[in-house]
Amino acid sequence: MASVAVIGAGAIGGVLAALASDRGHDVTVCVRTPFDVLTVVADGVERAVPVTIATDPGQVTPADWVLLATKAQDTASAAGWLGALAGPGSVVVVAQNGVDHTARVDGLVDPGATVLPASVRLGAEAVAPGRIVHHDYAQLTVPAGEAARGLAALYGTGGIGALRVVATDDFVTVAWRKLLSNAVANPITALTGRRNDVLTEPATRDLVVDLAREVLAVGRSAGAALTDDDVDDLVTMYDRMAPGLGTSMLYDRLAGRPLEHEYLTGAVVATGARTGVATPLNAAVLALLRGLRTPSDQVD
Ligand SMILES: NC(=O)C1=CN([C@@H]2O[C@H](COP(=O)(O)OP(=O)(O)OC[C@H]3O[C@@H](n4cnc5c(N)ncnc54)[C@H](OP(=O)(O)O)[C@@H]3O)[C@@H](O)[C@H]2O)C=CC1
Ligand SMILES: CC(C)(CO)C(=O)C(=O)O
């Protein structure tokens, strides 16, 4: 049995905590907004997850595994947790969207800790503090190596509801492929206030493709082995997605919470500026996202 601490028990953190608990590990969730019971709902079945709930870094000690699952912009605010939980033998899994996972925790964890960036494929929604709806998938893709093997062993293989851990030799490409999706779907759903069905309509199709082509060019300039097929695959994926589901940015917008745009669209624009790739469409979208006021503005 390993000790597992999850920082941020929202959509992703709540599911990762539940799946670790299912494997018999000793799980602590480190929360900002307190709640009494972590509840995960999957396929209409609701269950209370047996975890320890910590509300202050003074309550915790170094853990074998530290899973950081806050929004990227909240990483700095989790410094107290990271300092208390990540000792020299810990592995810190940065389970967030975007492309600069490792840099985000630079200086926030013990220099002896191993940092493992993770690309998250898992659809979930925090509908209230401590109450998580797990919609689909449960997969983390991480750089191949000893820590990846450890993470796979931690979560086990197979079984209903198990977390799939995939090891890759090219995390840069994996992260940019994920950003391709997030830099298109997240802003369009958040700005329109609509769920995934908005991505499949003729009115948005050109925008979807043109935004994706820009991200593709920037990702390639940053070393990602993306091809035109990735844009076609993205469009096919949107057409197959459940129309009633949304994105993490839409959920934040609907709840009046700050958005993660600087780490998604902002990362595309900043990388393009650095590598000399023009990003006029992503820059326009970024300007709109920066212009949103939360929580006072309203969407349907
Ligand atoms: N939701 C999804 O389907 C997917 C999300 N992702 C990515 O996963 C990451 C996590 O997203 P998601 O789970 O959706 O986000 P949520 O907003 O649902 O959860 C984040 C949680 O972090 C908590 N938090 C923030 N700051 C702190 C802190 N300093 N200390 C303790 N807890 C803190 C928040 O607390 P509070 O309740 O107070 O706000 C919240 O509960 C993001 O990078 C997202 O882009 C990736 C794939 C899919
Ligand atoms: C589920 C998915 C893939 C939607 O783009 C996501 O990563 C998010 O909501 O942030």
TrEMBL record:
It holds the Pfam family ApbA_C. Residues 4-144 form the Ketopantoate reductase N-terminal domain. Gene3D superfamilies: N-(1-d-carboxylethyl)-l-norvaline Dehydrogenase, domain 2 (1.10.1040.10), NAD(P)-binding Rossmann-like Domain (3.40.50.720). Transmembrane segments: none annotated. Its EC number is 1.1.1.169. Pathway: Cofactor biosynthesis; (R)-pantothenate biosynthesis; (R)-pantoate from 3-methyl-2-oxobutanoate: step 2/2. It catalyses: (R)-pantoate + NADP(+) = 2-dehydropantoate + NADPH + H(+). It is an enzyme of class 1 (oxidoreductase). SUPFAM superfamilies: 6-phosphogluconate dehydrogenase C-terminal domain-like (SSF48179), NAD(P)-binding Rossmann-fold domains (SSF51735). InterPro entries: 6-PGluconate_DH-like_C_sf, 6PGD_dom2, ApbA, KPA_reductase, KPR-Related, KPR_N, NAD(P)-bd_dom_sf. Residues 171-291 form the Ketopantoate reductase C-terminal domain. GO terms for molecular function: 2-dehydropantoate 2-reductase activity. Keywords: NADP, Oxidoreductase, Pantothenate biosynthesis. Catalyzes the NADPH-dependent reduction of ketopantoate into pantoic acid. Belongs to the ketopantoate reductase family. This is 2-dehydropantoate 2-reductase. It comes from Actinomycetospora aeridis. The lineage of its organism: Bacteria, Bacillati, Actinomycetota, Actinomycetes, Pseudonocardiales.
